[in-house]
Design brief:
Blueprint: E1 6-13, E2 30-34, E3 48-54, E4 58-64, E5 73-81, E6 92-98, E7 105-110, E8 117-122, E9 128-138, E10 141-152, H1 156-161, H2 175-179, E11 196-205, E12 210-214, E13 219-223, E14 234-235, E15 240-246, H3 254-283, H4 289-316, E16 323-326, E17 331-336, E18 343-344, E19 349-354, E20 359-366, E21 378-382, E22 390-393, E23 413-416
């Protein structure tokens, strides 16, 4: 890819709308009156009181009658795995009454013949307000559900005096029916809801976070010291990724380059011999020192010309060297448009490097919606093929780079980065 961009659908959060923040607390037990009823499996629900409660791994729905001291109460508990919302097929459920300065009371049972249903019988021995707890233990599964505070009445007459008639709850949708289909539910919570604007957006490197290495002249590509770069390779700033051997110009050929090397070698040898001769004359004060200084400079120039000629010849004949293509930034190679030995033209993009550690999301806000956004507070989006939604919150995990400016005359949008 020549440009590191993905087109996505995003929604820009506006700050102009009011919002409320409520931290989501642990799910609380919900109690309500329930009619005794038979479900589609034939077992009788407890009636009286029903509780729905969530732990980290299971959902509990239980029905039981009003609790009376020294009277047996049947708890019809339905347990669902939150991982797949299927019935808990094995394990032990313990019902516990604790608190109010009285000894702990408990009873337990294994799962019934119907997966997910546990029928526990408990006879309370102490009246008063107590806390109801459900503990599930089984292979690879352990959960505790807090059923909240319940009243243990001293006698049946006291229980009937506070009995609550069940309200019409409409169509029943039992757990047994839910377990048989693709179904899921969750505790309702309060969270922020802000006004948002749907926009098109692109994800790209920062302005200073990408670099394209292009050919300065026509020539042949050769591998760098660490081999030829590949997509996904991590590179350091200043690292040589490849060499560019310039194309021979005019009537220049290999023989001409070799001749240039020989000529430079002879001139270098002559310069050294001349410098030795003049230094001998200077030793007997036969010549001024300036002539020796000039001879040394000529020798240095001849050696430099020899080195350059050797490099040109080696590069053109497949040896190392050439114009080094260095990455100006540290990052990842995201595109390579040529292979070793390929002929490239002047200006051709060869290697694309980007810093993927911090990216820009550039949203294109429609001109018609710009007035609704005083300053973007964040953005949420989902990439193609991704299961989760990404939320960027300014001041938390994101920074607002720019918003507004001139309306694009073609798209009629404003940028928000």
């Amino acid at each position: 890819m020549n440009k590191l961009k993905w087109t996505i659908i995003a929604a820009l959060l506006a700050t102009s709308a009011a919002c409320q923040r409520h931290e989501a607390s642990a799910p609380q037990a919900t109690q309500h009156a329930a009619d005794p009823a038979r479900n589609d499996t034939g077992h009788e629900h407890g009636g009286g009181i029903s509780i729905t409660n969530y732990s980290g791994v299971t959902e509990l729905f239980v029905e039981f009658p009003v609790l009376v001291k020294n009277e047996e109460a049947v708890f019809a508990a339905h347990l669902t795995r939150l991982a797949d919302f299927k019935a808990v097929a094995e394990g032990t459920l313990t019902v516990i009454l604790i608190g109010n300065g009285q000894p702990e009371e408990s009873a337990e049972t294994q799962v019934s013949q119907t997966p997910g249903i546990f029928r526990v019988t408990l006879k309370p021995q102490h009246a008063g307000k107590r806390r109801l707890v459900f503990q599930l233990s089984g292979p690879g599964l352990s959960a505790t559900h807090n059923g909240g505070e319940v009243e243990i009445h001293g006698n049946r007459q006291a229980a009937m005096a506070v009995a609550v008639s069940a309200a019409d709850e409409g169509i029943r949708f039992s757990k047994e029916q839910q377990w048989g289909i693709e179904f899921a539910n969750a505790a309702a919570i309060e969270r922020d809801i802000r006004e948002s604007v749907p926009v098109l957006a692109t994800i790209r490197p920062r302005a200073s976070g990408e670099a394209q290495l292009s050919a300065l002249t026509a020539g042949l590509l050769r591998a760098g010291p660490g081999g030829f770069p590949q997509v996904g390779m991590k590179v350091a700033a200043g690292q040589v990724l490849a060499f560019l051997a310039p194309r021979l110009g005019g009537e220049t050929d290999i023989a001409t380059l070799n001749l240039a090397v020989q000529r430079a070698l002879i001139e270098s040898q002559q310069a050294r011999q001349e410098r030795d001769r003049l230094e001998g004359l200077l030793a007997v004060e036969a010549i001024p020192a300036k002539r020796v200084v000039d001879a040394r400079r000529k020798e240095e120039l001849a050696q430099a010309e020899l080195k350059a000629a050797e490099q040109r010849a080696a590069t053109s004949q497949g040896g190392g060297g050439g114009i080094a293509l260095r990455s100006p930034i540290a990052g990842t190679v995201v595109a390579v448009s040529a292979i070793p030995g390929a002929a490239v033209i002047e200006g051709q993009m060869i290697i694309h490097v980007a810093d993927l550690g911090r990216l820009w999301l550039e949203a294109h806000v429609p001109e018609s919606a710009a007035a609704r956004i005083k300053q973007p507070a964040g953005v949420f989006f989902r990439l193609d093929g991704a299961a989760d939604t990404t939320v960027l919150q300014v001041g938390s995990n994101a920074q607002l780079i720019a918003f507004g400016g001139m309306v694009d005359t073609t798209t009629r949008t404003l940028p928000a980065i």
